[in-house]
Every structure is written in structure tokens, then in C-alpha cells.
Design brief:
Helix 3 packs parallel to helix 7 and helix 5 packs antiparallel against helix 7. The strands form 2 sheets. The protein has a 6-stranded mixed beta sheet, with helices on both faces. It has a 4-stranded antiparallel beta sheet with strand order 2-1-4-5, with helices on one face. By secondary structure, the chain is α/β, with parallel strands linked by helices. The chain is about 40% helix and about 25% strand. It has 2 domains: about 140 residues, 3-Layer(aba) Sandwich (Rossmann fold); about 70 residues, no CATH class.
């Protein structure tokens, strides 16, 4: 469904990503792993049209997206939960969720999708009228995921969902991500620094180092890989 080939991208004269190739199939959870500054967020930005690739291809269900606008890409069903959540803290939970309905189709299906989101995250329904800034960090992350679901993603991109959250909350969020993939056929691209947690949830993964794909494999293969163990898992 998503196929990235020979992707190069950066900021101005500085190139960050070199010859990145990977793919995500329908209903798969694919992890993009790597440490701080490896280039993971830049990869997300290049897929979602926020950074223009200087070379390579990003195709989604056979359609080339590399030179398309963020809006066009969003309309195709690639929805991201950005790093740091980017919740509107002054607005209520419900108003934040309404922001997830960004086009005619998602607005028409809003009530139905809201019911599904509330079913997945009952806390959000309890707090619907509360300012989003009063939610805990974990609840805000859930709100960010729920808002993305309102956008009816075919591919959901989660950028560092574990950031600043307690381990059990991270588990809850990643469980929801794999459930969505397995039950609803939504593909998930999970960008994570917490490699242990990401590999516990993902089907496959790619390790990014210095803007290049250094390793790829199934979650089991990567967990057993000597380099991954030494460099990232401390074992
Ligand atoms: P993190 O987990 O810290 O977000 P990351 O793997 O997502 O790390 P990126 O955010 O993609 O890494 O950053 C890769 C490199 O690109 C870094 O060296 C960073 O300083 C640089 N970079 C990121 N954003 C910009 C920008 N807007 N302008 C210039 N350089 C940037």
C-alpha cells in the first residue's frame, strides 16, 4: 500500500535522508526505529508532504505522492499523529475531535466515527466537554490518536507516541494501534525510539541510522539481531 523508494530529503542545502526504501502493507504495523536525530521525523514529513523529497518516490496504492501537497496526501487517507501530539489545549476534547474531520467525507461520517473513537477511548467521552489541556499526558496522546481516527486513515502514522508517557500507558496506546491494524485493516507506521515497545507491537521494522536504513526485518529478527541488541536494547 505504501511504497517508498530511493527517498532523499532534507532542509535547504542539508540533506538528511539518503536512499530510503521501505514499504507498508495493508493491515501491517511497521516500525521505523532509530535514535534521536536519525531522521525518523524527516521521513514522516517527506511522506506527508511537509518536506519535499529531492529524489525518490512515495507511492500509495500505486499513486505517486512525492510532489503532492499535504492536503492531497491527507485526502488519500494518510493521517498522522504528530510528535508532541499537538492538541489544542484551550479547546474541549470534543472540539479537538471535530478538528479531525477535515473534509466532506469525514464530516459526513463524524458521528459514526466519534462513537467508534469513544468506544476505543471511553475516558474521552467522559471528558468530552473538558478543556483538552486538563487531560493527563496519556489521555492527550489518546485524544491525538482518536482525532486521527476521525480522519478515517488508511495509513496511520504515529510519531513517537511513547514520548513522556508511563510504560503502561504506552502499552495501552500501542495495543490500540495493533488492534486497529488487525481488526480494521488500517496500516500503521510506528515511528519510535523505544525499540523494545515498538518491536513488541510491530510486524516488521526498519532501523534508521544517520538518515539511511541500516537494517530491516520482522520484529522477531530485529529483536534477535546482535547490532540491535547491543546498540539499542543494551543487552
Ligand atoms: P527525534 O526522535 O529527535 O525527533 P528523528 O530521528 O526524528 O529524531 P529528525 O527530527 O528527522 O530525527 O532530525 C534529523 C536531522 O534533521 C537532525 O540532525 C535535525 O537537527 C535535522 N532537522 C530536523 N528538523 C529540521 C529543520 N526544520 N531544519 C533543519 N534541520 C532539521
Amino acid at each position: 500500500m505504501l511504497k517508498v523508494e530511493g527517498l532523499r530529503a532534507g532542509y535547504g542545502a542539508i540533506n538528511i535522508l539518503w536512499d530510503i526504501s521501505f514499504d507498508v502493507k495493508e493491515g501491517e504495523v511497521v516500525a521505523i526505529l532509530g535514535s534521536n536525530g536519525a531522521g525518523k521525523t524527516t521521513m514522516v514529513r517527506a511522506i506527508t508532504g511537509m518536506v519535499r523529497p529531492s529524489a525518490g518516490s512515495v507511492s500509495f496504492n500505486g499513486e505517486e505522492l512525492a510532489k503532492k501537497s499535504s492536503r492531497f496526501i491527507l485526502d488519500k487517507g494518510i493521517v498522522q499523529v504528530p510528535e508532541g501530539r499537538q492538541i489544542f489545549t484551550e479547546m474541549t476534547v470534543l472540539e479537538n475531535l471535530e478538528m479531525g474531520a477535515f473534509n466532506k467525507a469525514t464530516r459526513a461520517a463524524f458521528q459514526q466515527n466519534l462513537a467508534v473513537a469513544y468506544q476505543r477511548f471511553p475516558k474521552l467521552q467522559e471528558r468530552a466537554r473538558q478543556a483538552a489541556g486538563t487531560l493527563s499526558g496519556g489521555e492527550q496522546q489518546m485524544l491525538a490518536v482518536a482525532r486521527a481516527l476521525i480522519g478515517m486513515p488508511k495509513l496511520l502514522i504515529l510519531d513517537e507516541p511513547s514520548l513522556g508517557l508511563a510504560p503502561n500507558i504506552v502499552d495501552d496506546i500501542l495495543n490500540v494501534a495493533s488492534e486497529m491494524a488487525k481488526k480494521d485493516g488500517i496500516s500503521v507506521l510506528l515511528v519510535e525510539q523505544d525499540i523494545t515497545k515498538a518491536l513488541a507491537c510491530a510486524d516488521r521494522g526498519y532501523v534508521v541510522e544517520n538518515g539511511r536504513i541500516a537494517l530491516e526485518g520482522t520484529a522477531a529478527e530485529l529483536s534477535a539481531n546482535e547490532h540491535v541488541k547491543k546498540a539499542y536494547l543494551g543487552i
